[in-house]
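C-alpha coordinates in:
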Protein backbone atom coordinates (compact mmCIF):
# COMPACT_ATOMS: atom_id res chain seq x y z
CA UNK A 1 0.00 0.00 0.00
CA UNK A 2 1.22 3.49 -0.86
CA UNK A 3 1.97 5.84 2.04
CA UNK A 4 3.05 9.46 2.30
CA UNK A 5 5.05 10.59 5.31
CA UNK A 6 6.35 14.13 5.12
CA UNK A 7 7.98 14.57 1.73
CA UNK A 8 8.52 10.81 1.24
CA UNK A 9 6.28 8.42 -0.69
CA UNK A 10 6.70 4.70 -0.06
CA UNK A 11 5.09 1.43 -1.03
CA UNK A 12 4.77 -0.67 2.12
CA UNK A 13 5.27 -4.37 1.47
CA UNK A 14 3.87 -7.09 3.72
CA UNK A 15 6.38 -9.47 5.28
CA UNK A 16 5.47 -12.13 2.72
CA UNK A 17 5.94 -9.65 -0.14
CA UNK A 18 9.35 -8.63 1.26
CA UNK A 19 10.35 -12.29 1.22
CA UNK A 20 9.11 -12.76 -2.35
CA UNK A 21 10.67 -9.53 -3.63
CA UNK A 22 13.94 -10.17 -1.79
CA UNK A 23 13.80 -6.47 -1.03
CA UNK A 24 12.54 -3.95 1.46
CA UNK A 25 9.80 -1.42 0.78
CA UNK A 26 10.82 1.21 -1.82
CA UNK A 27 10.61 4.93 -1.07
CA UNK A 28 11.29 8.16 -2.94
CA UNK A 29 10.89 11.91 -2.57
CA UNK A 30 7.36 12.96 -3.39
CA UNK A 31 8.72 15.78 -5.57
CA UNK A 32 10.44 13.17 -7.81
CA UNK A 33 7.08 11.66 -8.84
CA UNK A 34 6.46 12.93 -12.38
CA UNK A 35 3.56 10.84 -13.70
CA UNK A 36 0.99 8.20 -12.84
CA UNK A 37 -0.66 5.96 -15.41
CA UNK A 38 -3.25 3.19 -15.08
CA UNK A 39 -2.61 0.09 -17.21
CA UNK A 40 -5.21 -2.65 -17.72
CA UNK A 41 -2.79 -5.37 -18.87
CA UNK A 42 0.53 -5.29 -16.99
CA UNK A 43 1.99 -8.32 -18.81
CA UNK A 44 3.40 -6.40 -21.78
CA UNK A 45 6.97 -5.44 -22.72
CA UNK A 46 6.07 -1.77 -22.27
CA UNK A 47 5.12 -2.28 -18.62
CA UNK A 48 7.44 -5.09 -17.46
CA UNK A 49 10.81 -4.13 -18.93
CA UNK A 50 14.04 -6.10 -18.67
CA UNK A 51 14.93 -9.02 -16.43
CA UNK A 52 13.75 -9.77 -12.92
CA UNK A 53 16.65 -9.69 -10.48
CA UNK A 54 16.03 -10.18 -7.56
CA UNK A 55 12.48 -11.28 -6.91
CA UNK A 56 9.80 -13.80 -7.74
CA UNK A 57 8.23 -14.25 -11.15
CA UNK A 58 5.71 -16.69 -12.59
CA UNK A 59 4.26 -15.38 -15.87
CA UNK A 60 0.65 -14.19 -15.58
CA UNK A 61 0.58 -15.17 -11.87
CA UNK A 62 3.08 -12.95 -9.99
CA UNK A 63 5.91 -10.50 -10.64
CA UNK A 64 7.36 -9.26 -7.40
CA UNK A 65 10.69 -7.48 -7.10
CA UNK A 66 13.15 -5.54 -9.25
CA UNK A 67 13.13 -5.48 -13.04
CA UNK A 68 16.49 -4.37 -14.45
CA UNK A 69 17.10 -2.97 -17.93
CA UNK A 70 19.77 -0.97 -19.73
CA UNK A 71 18.66 2.50 -18.64
CA UNK A 72 17.48 1.74 -15.09
CA UNK A 73 15.34 -0.43 -12.88
CA UNK A 74 11.67 -0.72 -11.90
CA UNK A 75 10.02 -2.04 -8.76
CA UNK A 76 7.09 -4.35 -9.56
CA UNK A 77 4.20 -5.77 -7.55
CA UNK A 78 1.93 -7.46 -10.12
CA UNK A 79 -0.64 -10.13 -9.30
CA UNK A 80 -2.45 -12.17 -11.95
CA UNK A 81 -4.02 -10.12 -14.74
CA UNK A 82 -5.16 -7.28 -12.52
CA UNK A 83 -4.74 -3.61 -13.55
CA UNK A 84 -1.75 -1.66 -12.20
CA UNK A 85 -0.65 1.89 -11.59
CA UNK A 86 2.70 2.88 -13.10
CA UNK A 87 4.36 5.63 -11.07
CA UNK A 88 7.27 7.26 -12.90
CA UNK A 89 10.05 8.97 -10.95
CA UNK A 90 12.84 11.38 -11.84
CA UNK A 91 15.92 10.99 -9.72
CA UNK A 92 17.95 8.26 -8.05
CA UNK A 93 16.61 4.79 -7.33
CA UNK A 94 13.81 3.13 -9.24
CA UNK A 95 12.64 4.78 -12.48
CA UNK A 96 9.14 3.34 -12.07
CA UNK A 97 6.97 1.52 -9.56
CA UNK A 98 4.41 -0.89 -11.03
CA UNK A 99 1.90 -1.46 -8.24
CA UNK A 100 -1.67 -2.78 -7.87
CA UNK A 101 -4.49 -0.44 -8.86
CA UNK A 102 -6.81 -0.25 -5.87
CA UNK A 103 -8.77 2.46 -4.10
CA UNK A 104 -6.26 2.86 -1.25
CA UNK A 105 -3.39 3.52 -3.68
CA UNK A 106 -5.55 5.88 -5.76
CA UNK A 107 -6.45 7.88 -2.63
CA UNK A 108 -2.76 8.41 -1.85
CA UNK A 109 -2.12 9.53 -5.44
CA UNK A 110 -5.02 12.00 -5.22
CA UNK A 111 -3.58 13.36 -1.95
CA UNK A 112 -0.14 13.74 -3.54
CA UNK A 113 -1.75 15.47 -6.53
CA UNK A 114 -2.91 18.29 -4.28
CA UNK A 115 0.74 19.06 -3.46
CA UNK A 116 2.45 18.33 -6.78
CA UNK A 117 1.15 18.69 -10.33
CA UNK A 118 0.15 15.22 -11.56
CA UNK A 119 -2.46 14.07 -14.05
CA UNK A 120 -5.67 13.18 -12.20
CA UNK A 121 -6.66 9.53 -12.29
CA UNK A 122 -10.24 8.87 -13.37
CA UNK A 123 -12.47 7.33 -10.71
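Residues out:
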Amino acid sequence: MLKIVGNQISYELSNLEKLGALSSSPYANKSNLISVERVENPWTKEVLRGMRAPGTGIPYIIMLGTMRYKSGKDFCVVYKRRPVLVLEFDGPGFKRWVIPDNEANRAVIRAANSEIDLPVLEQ
